[in-house]
Amino acid sequence: MATPTPTVEIGFIGPAFDNAFTLDDPVKGKLDSTDFVLSGTEILADLTSRCVSFTTRRGRNDWTQPFSPGIATLLFRNTDGALDPLNTSSVYYPGITVGRTVTIKCNGHLIYSGLVEDINLGYDTSGDAWVTVVAEDQSSELGLRSLTSGTSFSQQSSGPRVSAVLANANIDYAGATSIDGGNSTLAAETLSADINAVQYLQKVTNSEQGYLYVSRSGVMTFENRYGPISSASTVTFSDDGSDVPYQQIGRNLVSAELFNRLTANRTGAAAVTANETASQDSYGIRLLPVGEVLVLDDATVTDILGFLMVQTASTEVRINSLTAVLDTQSSGTQNTIAQLELADAVTVEFTPPGVAQQTTNGTLQQIRHAFTVGETWRITLGMTPRNTTSYLTLDNTTLGRLDFNSLGF
Q: Helix count (H) and strand count (E) of the chain?
């Protein structure tokens, strides 16, 4: 077993971090220098020794909703006042400021990258002082920007549509991206009203049934609908000592994710409805309004609803969370866990009381880290069942039977 090593860094710009190009300076004034640039850039400073604790949360609680901006909360000891913005003699002056980069690593592997959103400074009369920093990932910027009425898009696949939104002059997303081409073709359109960027991108994601999130390294990522289904399991967690151990799992019979009547509509068109009557007979009618999708025809809307219905029309006891303690793992296993990403596939083996060991496959919907100096480092994974057995698979003796499994689209 090994103790995981955290690294916490925050970006600074100030006198001690001065890397701005300066005319007539023999060092800073050299042309074509990569060390000294116009206006300067932030420099990451290692604040690990000051960090008392941090938590990170990336992903979503409800898979029917968009991925939320990833949030990190960090607590720093500040008894020497070095992080106080009024301390002009501090090497960190003018202190931590909004918009600066925050990175957190485990054994050198990024688990979070975001931007400072809020800073709170506290102290008491005993001399104790602290700074709390809240960061959000780069997707939070999109919630403050809108596509304007009159914006036009050509007919294109879902991935290029995501790229076109991010590149729009009113959105001007400057972060790194990794955008899959996607499988759905979206209709050409001209917007008749302003719309928030996040709301429009959710329509694109619904049309693809894909995944749009910011990765642990700060990259805006779009995956097509088949990525999580077709990818191999990243890690197997087990309660019998054969694979990666975990501390606890959360299991529930999920009625909140049971839907057997689904509706969606194309832009300006009437709603299309899909029903799973067997499920309705067993559980009653449970409606999920998918909302507006941007595809070419109602036949594709029907395909989207059919793709979803496979995942929503039945209820089962499922694992929705798993907590592991990194301190109980080998360094290699710690690194594997630290590099887990949203939409990754994982396998969980568990043995309920009085029942033989069970195996389930999940798709990661949420990843949370919690670290405090002197305590254990915990990671909690939120997941939904990874359904790989309900879709038709050509040349497979079990999954390739006609009239047995469901077609994707």
A: 6, 25
pTM: 0.89
> pLDDT tens for residues 101-141?
999 999 999 999 999 999 999 999 888 999 999 999 999 99
Would you list the DSSP string of 360-381?
EEEEEEEEEEEEETTS--EEEE
Asked if residue 94 has a cis previous peptide bond (ω within 30° of 0), the answer is yes
Tell me the percentage of the chain whose pLDDT exceeds 70.
87
- Written as six digits, the tokens of 195 are 């719309």
> Which one, of 228, 227, 174, 171, lies nearest residue 201 by Cα?
171
Distance CA(151)–CA(197), nearest Å, equals: 12
**Helical ranges in 223-264 per DSSP H:** 227-230
Concatenated DSSP letters for 310-345?
A: HHHS---EEEEEEEEEGGGS-HHHHHHHHT--TT-E
Maximal C-alpha separation, the chain = 81
Rounded Cα distance between 275 and 127, Å, is 65
Q: How far apart are CA 338 and CA 332, in angstroms?
A: 10
C-alpha span between 72 and 141 (Å, rounded): 16
